[in-house]
Amino acid sequence: xxxxxxxxxISRRRQTILTLAGIILGTVAFIVxxxxxxxxxxxxxxxxxxxxxxxxxxxxxxFITDDTLSTFFFPQAQHVYWDSPPTTRKDNPAITYPTGWYxxxxxxxxxxxxxxxxxxxxxxxxxxKSIAGxxxxxxxxxxxxxxxxxxxxxxxxxxxxxxxxxxxxxGQALLEKLGAHLTERIWISNGRSEPIPFKIVxxxxxxxxxxxxxxxxxxxxxxxRMNQTLGQINEIGVKFNHLDDAKxxxxxxxxxxxxxxxxxDQVNASFFNVFKIQDAVRYMMVAAILVVSGFGIxxxxxxVVTQKRxxxxxxxxxxxxxxxxxxxxxxxGVVLGILGGVIGVAIGYxxxxxxxxxxxxxxxxxxxxxxxxxxxDVTIYIRAFTLSFFASVLASILPAQAAGRMTPIDVIRSES
Amino acid sequence: MxxxxxxxxxxxxxxPTQVLTNISCEIKLGEFVSLVGRSGSxxxxxxxxxxxxxxxxxxxVKIGGEEISSFTQKxxxxxxxEHMGFVFQFHYLLPELSAEENILMPARxxxxxxxxxxxxxxxxxxxxxxxxxxxxxxxxxxxxxxxxAIARALIMEPTYLFxxxxxxxLDTANGEIVMNIFKKLNLEKKTTIVMVTHDPDFAxxxxxxxxxxxxxxxxxxx
Lengths: 416, 222
Known about the structure:
The structure holds two protein chains of two kinds. Chain A is an alpha+beta fold.
């Protein structure tokens, strides 16, 4: 039947090409959409994994309730009632026992490096213009071991922060908003204290607007002094030898401390929810395309079966069984699926190669090249081929079965 | 291996129509029988029932003493492939295959197409269309297409050849060519031929004529 199936495909060239075009379109669409979506995803994950700590240990925010104050002010009173119960957040949450954490982290063989941090909200002022931001106090040497922030320094060096002396490194977007420049001094306050002058010794640009427009790096001691929380930290960033260890360590350490312990994927859970939605959208789009091309195959094969009634009748009368006739049309669906899948994969790959050379107008520092981010993950191509192949095979089952049900006498009677 | 029909009836439910009524006859091996009658007399239906393409509503159809209805589907297809040839009013050639490939289709079912190629060439030569061997059906005339269809029916050297109005679509000259092929086949190869026709001249070419009217055999002539 293979021989006849091929002959029929070749003889009705136009229908075959149209059917193939539908399958190819579906395959290419899947590859391009997936390539771009996954390319973007890989970039984001790369940013999340490599530019930040694998695990964050952060001080838990504590809230003041009526019990908190009643116990403090009226420890002996049995019947104290509040007309308006106090509800607020405790200021300056801090890690309770940092030394304990340092000891634990130093001894854990999974840990590559760790960096104590103090993150605090600040107001930056220059010539009367004020902008809100976040000061991250760090030990520059430790911070560079934990994150790849040094890679994004555009002017100066990350180590220029030093261990004190009111020196800061500012995000490029924040610098532009302030209208400031390198070596200039700007005033920083946490809102409760008097503004203190800090000298801009460097500029960084990660490509993530939310970071570049708000973040300022300074030394840990300067941040503690400005925040009036000497000796306190509110976060520890941890880098692991193996990325997978972060989740396990998060589960282990969550139960042994008051602090919030979150691995990189837990911190960025919202990103992963977006990825899930992206996946759903991607599969729905491709399903729609494949359903359309599947219906195309179904319609064309159905039409062919109707056109070939006489030939089916003669095949049956010269000894071919129903299964042979089913195979005749099923093989055509399979061949179209394989051919369309292979051509689609080749065109999809070529298109992705081309797209990867296009500039998307973003900053080169963000992606390293400023070009469109396209994934060439082999699983995309395997999935694209498998989906288009099965769509073609499924679409050819019904027409093939209809052909197999035809008896020679029914066709001959209807023809005479 | 004669074909024996006993009390064969055929009716259709919608609308209720009795096509054949108590048909009993025997087609002996090597016979050339023509089924003659007016349009709607049931001759084609009788041909299809005795050739296993259709089933009788009641009665018995035996080939070589064996009831056809007792054949499994597989055996029935194999029997058709090896022992029966069919020629219809319309040639039913596969349009995407050449004359030679069309002729070899029954042999291809059993993987015998390579062995049968020489015989296909012989048949085409006998039918005077050897030079059209590689032509597609659409490149052949009506008479040539019908001769290719006959060659296809004969490629497995069948015991029986069933033909339904084989000259119905041909002009007189081509009709005579086809009839001569049948006569020669019956004479030389002793192939049993059952032919449906409404043309009295062609019917008389057969060694026996069975006349049908309103689904009943009215007379037989030798």
